[in-house]
Amino acid sequence: MRSGLASLITSVTDRPGHDRRYALDITKIRRNLGWSPRHSLTDGLLETVHWYLDNPGWIQAIHQQPDYETWLDKNYTHREGRI
């Protein structure tokens, strides 16, 4: 991990009904289509995090969208069907 990035990690309370774990199994897609990932899950996650850290302007543009707060509220705070 890049120097000092561990201090940016914040644990949050899990959302009700959210999966506690994910089990990835690519056996079927590998068998039927011959597909296999180019990156490991760990490498892919690291590459994604680094992209966000290297592109703060993209995140700022999202936050400046007029309906950003409304979308967050609808999809994460007052979502229908929450357990």
- Reading the helices and strands in chain order gives HHHH
Instruction: Give the integer mean of the pLDDT values.
Output: 83
Q: Rg, please?
A: 17 Å
Low-confidence stretches: none
Largest sheet: none
Global structural class: mainly alpha
Head-to-tail CA distance between termini = 35 Å
Note the overall shape.
extended
Number of E-state strands: 0
How many domain modules?
1
- Count of helical stretches: 4
Task: Indicate the proportion of strand residues.
Answer: under 5%
Which helices and strands appear, and what pairs or packs with what?
Elements: H1 27-33, H2 41-54, H3 56-63, H4 68-77
Task: Write out key terms for the chains shown.
4 helices, 83 residues, extended, mainly alpha
Please summarize what this structure is.
By secondary structure, the protein is mainly alpha-helical. 47% of the residues lie in helices and 0% in strands.
3D architecture notes:
This protein is an all-alpha fold and 83 residues long. It has one domain (5-77). It is built from four helices and no strands. The protein starts with 26 loop residues before the first helix and ends in a 6-residue tail after the last helix. The model has no long low-confidence stretch (mean pLDDT 83).
